């Protein structure tokens, strides 16, 4: 809406001349030097020694194990978030109880907490010295736990505003037309939440596949067992195999882009019916 | 009686909203719930639909006690001021919703929905989403959706409140005609007295959470129960300590029996009618006359005239 | 009934995943009083890590704030070809693993890369030193300021700015007197987010810093290194310090968040 209004009121011809050109120049150079050229260099380096080498780098046993673990665990974590994130958003919007606002604030903690600290605190409660007697250190469950921690806010924060804006009269209309609570949820509420739920899930998934810091301590980085892709890349860099590292990085970039592009398509689809 | 409301009380927190409300709605009637904003009209309508629980009192629909029934079991059609359209469903699926819930056969649903869409003139827009409709179209869709389940009563909460003046006028006439065709017992809420008089066959005036008067539009207009109703239903002016309709006043150039002397302060010509503003007994009043009468009297500012209610005019003494 | 069950599940999930772990580490840190905490954080290595962290985060926040304001104004107020593309590129860092960020910077600014070699011959070392760490931090925190300002600029509209122009204000005057006050809360929100992200960055910095103790070691690297060397008290103390910073950030952003303010906070 606002974008369209802006587009009408601005007079492009007059503005592009001075300020725009200078500002645009600065922004493009900044973005290129820091983000675009380096990322292009990664992709370039991965293809450096031909497709055969790329394929071999990606399919070395440890790299392949790391990639499949990363994508599998991320998919699982995305699914957990889909359910739990929606449930938490629901409780935050529709439920009333003391401490609700505190809960609402705490949800953003994973965004603010450094990932290495996240890993450390999880290890304290779910590691060898766990006061609960649950030891997930050096296990795949530990990796999943770390990914659950860092991705918690995504679904909650995409579903929550949609739920807040959802017209409750729509639910009353459904009830007066004979729909029971479950039918109202399935036929009226859920379809209106699905686009937000899916985009939150896609965001959580892209975050999970790229996660590094939180898994370092709790996973123990055991190749073939708990080593995630980012850690595998890290060890390849340490071993001076930048071409191999670049190949796995490229795979991660492509998977993330595919997830984000599908998300964009989903959002357009959702907006069409807005 | 299609709807019988008995001694309903309802408070939100400590704020009383409905106070001992009783109401009868005859089967097949088109009843307007009229009153100022905040008077409790929506709350009463929502109590009838089961969307609010009354604190005390009962609601009977078609002779059955519905007080404890959930809205989903009342078989009541409800139309919301802001449409409450299902945004994720097409016009067709919106209207089909209640029938799908009732698990009617596909072919029957299709036939019924298309009939209704024709009735509300939306048959060409069946595949659109609500966001692709105008306000008036959305409201007609909501109406068709409510009618689809063949409700025992149809309840509309300020159905035209969110529309612009032009569309409002059109839909009013259209609702009247629709009711003549469908005959479903209908209650609609409005704060616009003109709308109520034009559309309804019964008007119930609700103010401050109480039913102040109920009757046909003519009765309520001509025999208002109190000054409040008289003011709310049409223009009034005050002459000789009484409230009178400005078109029920006779102007004479000379003194007449039972008349009050007045001085003209302004004459405003509004097309066919003329508004004569006067000072009478130290305060402002006004009289509505036709252009012909005004021309015959040749009124101008400063003229002294004499006013009295026309024979048979209804006036209400104001307690002083 | 179902309502209570759902509430219980949601609260328990957040409690066991977020709250209890953080509380446990704070409790372990302060279990023996304040002294060990202070001692652990005032060791020369810890103090040096603080200094490096603040230097790197400071530069990164300044750079991203300037870039963020310029880019947000470009995106909202100006028309130019490729605008959508610029918008998409801004969000790109969100989808990139911190380790890949580090690798990307090494491939361009490393000693053996053409560009890095050129800088090296001018006596500027980027990788394994502060400039590289600043670049890495800038990369990961890049979208935060832009994304905080854009919605507020859109909502503000440009009528006030045009009014200022018609009253004789120059571009700079208009920016300082009209635009900046209009976006100050959002800008504050963006800067706080950016600062928190910069202070807490681990992966990208781990790659480009070379993790040289007492040289390029930031606070997050300090946590990891101390933990791996079985110095739990120091690791817990630094982690607690970072967690407290995160909590303060959380409360600050809650205070500054533009949406909450509009709701009549
Ligand atoms: N859900 C509610 N909670 C609290 N107060 C309410 C609620 N619904 C209505 N009210 C109050 O009840 C009074 C009557 O409201 P309403 O029935 O909507 O009046 P009307 O429809 O005649 O304008 C108003 O003072 C309103 O503020
Ligand atoms: Mg109302």
What does this protein structure show overall?
The complex is a heterotrimer of chains A (274), B (320) and C (265). Chain A is 82% helix and 0% strand. With 274 residues, chain A is mainly α. Chain A folds into two domains: 15-47, no CATH class; 58-273, MetI-like fold (Orthogonal Bundle), CATH 1.10.3720. In chain A, helix 7 crosses helix 8. Chain B is an alpha+beta fold. Chain B has two domains: 3-228, P-loop containing nucleotide triphosphate hydrolases (Rossmann fold), CATH 3.40.50; 235-317, OB fold (Dihydrolipoamide Acetyltransferase, E2P) (Beta Barrel). In chain B, 29% of the residues lie in helices and 33% in strands. The relative contact order of chain B is 0.12. Chain C has 265 residues and is mostly helical. Chain C contains 13 helices and no strands. The longest helix of chain C is centred in the first third of the chain and has 34 residues, at 44-77. Chain C is globular. At the A-C interface, helix 1, helix 2, helix 4, helix 5 and helix 6 of A face helix 1, helix 3, helix 4, helix 5 and helix 7 of C.
Q: Between the first and last Cα atoms of chain B, what is the distance in angstroms?
A: 41 Å
Strand order of the largest sheet of chain B: 6-7-8-3-9-10
Query: SSE string of chain B, helix = H, strand = E?
Result: EEEHEEEHHHEHEHEEHHEEEEEEHEE
Q: Helix fraction of chain B?
A: 25-40%
Query: What is the name of the CATH superfamily of the largest domain in chain B?
Result: P-loop containing nucleotide triphosphate hydrolases
Strand content of chain A: under 5%
Structural class determined from secondary elements of chain A: mainly alpha
Q: What's the β-strand tally of chain A?
A: 0
Query: CATH fold name of the largest domain in chain B, please?
Result: Rossmann fold
The coarse silhouette of chain B is elongated
The kinds of small molecule bound in this structure are: adenosine-5'-diphosphate, magnesium ion
How many domains make up the coordinates of chain A?
A: 2
| CATH-derived topology of the largest domain in chain A | MetI-like fold
Biggest β-sheet of chain A: count, sense, barrel?
Answer: none
Number of strands of chain B: 18
Tell me the strand percentage band of chain B: 25-35%
* CATH 2nd-level architecture of the largest domain in chain A: Orthogonal Bundle
Uncertain regions spanning at least 5 consecutive residues of chain B = none
Protein name (chain B): ABC-type quaternary amine transporter
GO molecular function, one term (chain B): ABC-type quaternary ammonium compound transporting activity
GO cellular component, one term (chain B): ATP-binding cassette (ABC) transporter complex
EC number (chain B): 7.6.2.9
């Amino acid at each position: 809406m606002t974008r369209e209004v802006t587009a009408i009121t601005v007079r492009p011809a007059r503005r592009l001349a001075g300020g725009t050109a200078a500002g645009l120049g600065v922004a493009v150079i900044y973005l290129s030097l820091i983000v675009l050229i380096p990322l292009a260099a990664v992709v370039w380096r991965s293809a450096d020694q031909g497709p055969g080498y790329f394929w071999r780098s990606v399919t070395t046993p440890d790299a392949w194990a790391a990639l499949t673990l990363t994508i599998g665990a991320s998919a699982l974590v995305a699914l957990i978030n889909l359910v739990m994130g929606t449930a938490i958003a629901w409780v935050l919007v529709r439920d009333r109880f003391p401490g609700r606002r505190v809960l609402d604030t705490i949800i953003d903690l994973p965004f603010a907490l450094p990932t290495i600290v996240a890993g450390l605190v999880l290890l304290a409660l779910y590691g060898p010295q766990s006061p609960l007697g649950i030891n997930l250190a050096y296990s795949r469950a530990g990796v999943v736990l770390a990914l659950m921690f860092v991705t918690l806010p995504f679904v909650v924060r995409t579903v929550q505003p949609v739920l807040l804006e959802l017209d409750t009269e729509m639910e009353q209309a459904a009830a007066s037309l004979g729909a029971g609570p479950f039918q109202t949820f399935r036929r009226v509420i859920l379809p209106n939440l699905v686009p937000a739920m899916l985009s939150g899930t896609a965001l959580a998934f892209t975050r999970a596949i790229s996660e590094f810091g939180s898994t370092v301590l709790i996973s123990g980085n055991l190749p073939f067992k708990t080593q995630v892709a980012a850690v595998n890349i890290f060890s390849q860099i340490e071993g001076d195999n930048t071409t191999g590292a670049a190949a796995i990085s490229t795979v991660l970039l492509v998977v993330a882009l595919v997830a984000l592009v599908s998300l964009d398509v989903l959002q357009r689809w959702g907006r069409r019916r807005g | 009686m299609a709807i019988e409301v008995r001694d309903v009380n309802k408070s939100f927190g400590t704020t009383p909203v409905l106070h001992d409300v009783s109401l009868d709605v005859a089967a097949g009637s088109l009843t307007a719930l009229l009153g100022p904003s905040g008077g409790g009209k929506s709350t009463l309508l929502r109590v009838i639909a089961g969307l609010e629980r009354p604190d005390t009192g009962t609601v009977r629909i078609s002779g059955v006690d519905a007080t404890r029934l959930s809205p989903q079991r009342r078989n009541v059609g409800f139309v919301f001021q802001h449409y409450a359209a299902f945004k994720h469903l097409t016009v067709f699926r919106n209207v089909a919703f209640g029938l799908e819930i009732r698990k009617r056969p596909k072919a029957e649903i299709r036939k019924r929905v298309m009939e209704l869409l024709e009735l509300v003139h939306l048959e060409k827009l069946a595949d659109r989403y609500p966001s692709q409709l105008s306000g008036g179209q959305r409201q007609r869709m909501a109406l068709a959706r409510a009618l689809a389940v063949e409700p025992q009563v149809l309840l509309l909460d300020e159905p035209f409140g969110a529309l612009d003046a032009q569309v409002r006028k059109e839909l009013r006439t259209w609702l009247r005609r629709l009711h003549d065709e469908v005959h479903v017992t209908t209650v609609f809420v409005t704060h616009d007295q003109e709308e109520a008089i034009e559309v309804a066959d019964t008007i119930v005036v609700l103010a401050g959470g109480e039913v102040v008067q109920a009757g046909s539009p003519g009765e309520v207009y001509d025999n208002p129960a109190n000054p409040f109703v008289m003011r709310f239903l049409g223009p009034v002016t005050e002459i000789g300590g009484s409230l009178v309709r400005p078109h029920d006043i006779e102007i004479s150039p000379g003194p007449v029996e039972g008349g009050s002397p007045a001085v003209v302060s302004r004459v405003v010509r509004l097309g066919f009618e003329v508004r004569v503003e006067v000072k009478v007994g130290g305060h402002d009043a006004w009289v509505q006359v036709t252009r012909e009468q005004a021309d015959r009297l040749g009124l101008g500012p400063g003229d002294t005239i004499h006013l009295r209610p026309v024979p048979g005019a209804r006036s209400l003494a104001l307690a002083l | 009934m179902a309502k209570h069950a759902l509430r219980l599940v949601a609260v328990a999930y957040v409690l066991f995943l977020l709250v209890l772990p953080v509380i446990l580490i704070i409790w372990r840190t302060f279990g023996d009083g304040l002294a060990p905490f202070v001692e652990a954080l005032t060791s020369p290595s810890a103090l040096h890590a603080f200094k490096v962290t603040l230097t790197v985060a400071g530069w990164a926040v300044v750079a991203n704030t300037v870039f963020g304001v310029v880019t947000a104004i470009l995106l909202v107020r100006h028309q130019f070809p490729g605008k959508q593309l610029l918008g998409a590129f801004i969000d790109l860092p969100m989808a990139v693993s911190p380790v890949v960020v580090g690798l990307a910077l090494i491939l361009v600014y490393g000693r053996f890369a053409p560009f890095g070699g050129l800088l090296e011959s001018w006596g500027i070392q980027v990788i394994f030193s502060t400039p590289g760490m600043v670049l890495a931090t800038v990369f990961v925190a890049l979208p935060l300021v832009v994304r905080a300002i854009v919605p507020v600029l859109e909502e503000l509209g440009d009528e006030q700015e045009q009014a200022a122009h018609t009253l004789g204000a120059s571009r700079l005057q208009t920016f300082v007197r009209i635009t900046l006050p209009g976006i100050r809360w959002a800008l504050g929100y963006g800067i706080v987010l950016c600062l928190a992200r910069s202070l807490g960055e681990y992966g990208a910095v781990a790659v480009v810093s070379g993790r040289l103790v007492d040289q390029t070691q930031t606070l997050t690297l300090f946590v990891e290194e101390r933990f791996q060397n079985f110095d739990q008290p120091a690791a817990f103390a630094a982690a607690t310090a970072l967690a407290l910073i995160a909590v303060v950030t959380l409360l600050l952003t809650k205070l500054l968040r533009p949406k909450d303010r509009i709701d009549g906070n």
